[in-house]
Write a structure and sequence with these properties.
About 15% of the residues lie in helices and about 30% in strands. The protein has about 170 residues and is of the alpha+beta class. The strands form five sheets. Strands 6, 8, 9 and 10 form a four-stranded antiparallel sheet that branches. A three-stranded antiparallel sheet has the order 2-3-13, with no helix packed on it. The protein has a two-stranded parallel ribbon with strand order 1-7.
């Protein structure tokens, strides 16, 4: 027998060791793919005086909106709608952060859109500066609403007024 030849059992052991080494190498290469998602601040808190509410805004201060008909992963704003309503998007795998809990959903075109309370977020082309909410209540295939996160007033709400008791009936029967 040639000293450089491997017997069948030795060949099996060598191939098994080689396969195990290949699996370990693949696992090491795959580790970055399982690393935690990058986070990115994509929204701030702003006040819209006309609404008397605190709303989510883009980092540039533009009011963020959602469409009432876009629920449970159903997209209505596609095609020409996107010229007026611009999706707030992030890179795939990015975890969006802001003053409220945000998440993401994949759009029909493959982009990753930021969501608030399960609804995709958009800016409106009719808002030209921070603090505007010209898209509030806009109706087309649903109703557009600013993404409200609270009341603009920091004062506590007044307790409900108490009506005086009804006068007693002077003519009981």
């Amino acid at each position: 027998m040639n000293p450089f030849e491997l017997s069948r059992p030795s060949l099996r052991v060598a191939l098994t060791a080689l396969a195990a080494a290949a699996l370990v190498a693949l696992a090491i290469v795959a580790l970055p793919a399982t690393a935690p998602a990058a986070t990115k601040s994509v929204a701030k808190e702003g006040t819209v005086a006309s609404l008397g509410k605190k709303v989510l805004t883009s980092n540039a201060g533009r009011t963020l909106y959602s469409l009432s008909a876009e629920t449970k992963g159903r997209f209505i704003c596609t095609g020409s709608c996107l010229s007026a309503w611009r999706p707030l998007v992030v890179r795939a795998g990015t975890k969006p952060t802001g003053p409220a809990k945000l998440a993401t959903i994949e759009r029909p075109d493959g982009r990753t859109q930021v969501t608030f309370k399960g609804r995709p977020l958009y800016t409106f082309s009719g808002d030209t500066k921070p603090g505007e909410a010209n898209g509030e209540g806009f109706k087309d295939v649903g109703t557009w609403h600013a993404a409200v996160i609270g009341s603009a007033s920091s004062a506590p709400e007044a307790p409900p007024s108490q009506d005086p008791p009804p006068p007693s009936n002077p003519y009981p029967y």
